[in-house]
Amino acid sequence: MLWIEADDPVRADDARRLAARLGGTLVTPGTRLAHGRVRGATTPPVQETHDGDVILRLTASGPVLRSGAQPERGGYRPDHAALAARPPGRRSALGRALGDHRDLVVDATAGLGEDTVLLAALAPLVIAIERSPLGAYMIECALAALAAGTDRARAIARRIDLRTGDARTILPTLDPAPDVIYLDPMFEPRRRASALAPLPLRLLRAVVGDDPDAADLLAIARRTARRRVVVKRRGRSPVIDAGGHGDGTGTDASSRGTPGDSAGACAGDTAAGGASRVDARSTVLPDHVIRGTLLRYDVYLIRH
Predict the structure, then answer these.
(1) Is the pLDDT of residue 266 over 50?
(2) CB distance 119 to 159 below 8 Å
(3) Residue 280 has pLDDT above 50, yes or no
(4) pLDDT exceeds cutoff 70 at 109
């Protein structure tokens, strides 16, 4: 469930309109949110939240996301201004993954827009696609804040074109076709139950949901991009098993190993070979792997 509240009565009308737009539940003025069942009468009255709920709090400095599991604790707001102030260089891992030809880049899984800002620091035009209405709203607010910021922040905001919808539908309609399509899909966590993910990651998952269709999206992206598709992954995560399909039959290759294992996937910054390779189990392997400290970029070159 999405809860929407205002920190001040002057923003109550904004909260009401936003609840109608996003299909959220408006927090009743004069009440507070608490996790789980609260016994007995309380002052002020309580509205109960649950694990998986997201709270959008409107404040004077912008929207803040909070977890329904901890509604009374501090929330999270992505610091897009800080990202714009310290952009990655062309020789950074992200810059190398994008390649030299990046006039038009699509961020097909924009989320809360953090990677979108980094991409816009490296490319003259970035189309950001996000299917979660809440995620798209957070990006809207970020762009408005950047447009009122420093010269560098304003320049980055002008480069971003936000689209709300399913990237699988939008990508084939783009004209001209993008040089690079960037994917950062979300998958079901495979951590031990005792290992709690950081708050920003838990909130991002609650906002945008999981991406069980990531393999299908990768296949469509590979058919659409002019030069390359870049997939951001955690360092030991498996490659996405598109299996050459664009019909929803691909799956996350969680049982197929990770790049660098005996399956023949890439090791180091680049891998030998030309077009994206297919191993004995029909997993489409990236042409290049650009490794960072905690993550990597799987690069699929396009040869139409």
Answers:
(1) no
(2) no
(3) no
(4) yes
The phi and psi torsions of 115 (rounded to 5 degrees) equal -65, -30
Query: What torsion do the CA atoms of 29, 33, 39, 42 make, to the nearest 10 degrees?
Result: -40
3-state secondary structure of 172: helix
- 3-state DSSP call for residue 56? strand
Which positions ≥6 away from 180 have C-beta within 8 Å? 98, 99, 101, 102, 104, 105, 106, 123, 225, 227, 228, 229, 230
The count of other CB atoms within 10 Å of the CB of residue 23 is: 11
pTM, to two decimals: 0.82
What is the band of 243 on the pLDDT scale with cuts at 50, 70, 90? Answer: low
β-partners of residue 161 are 127
Is residue 246 within 8 A of residue 219, CB to CB? The reply is yes
Distance CA 172, CA 100 (A): 23
Q: Which of 29, 61, 251 is nearest to 144 (CA)?
A: 61
Give 229-245 as a DSSP string: EEEEEETTPPPEE-TT-
| Helical packing angle, 133-147 and 151-158, nearest 10° | 140
Bridge partners of 83, per DSSP, are none
116: pLDDT strictly greater than 70: yes
Mean pLDDT of the residues in the chain: 83
What is the number of alpha carbons within 13 Å of residue 262 lying toward its C-beta?
1
- Could you give all domains of the chain from N- to C-terminal order, each with its CATH number? 2-67 (no CATH), 82-301 (3.40.50.150)
The answer to whether residues 146 and 80 touch, using CB atoms and an 8 Å cutoff, is yes
- In sequence order, what are the residues at sequence separation of 6 or more whose Cβ sits closer than 8 angstroms to the Cβ of residue 86? none
In single-letter form, the type of residue at position 195 comes to A
> What pLDDT is recorded for position 269?
40
Handedness of CA 202, 110, 143, 138 (dihedral sign): negative
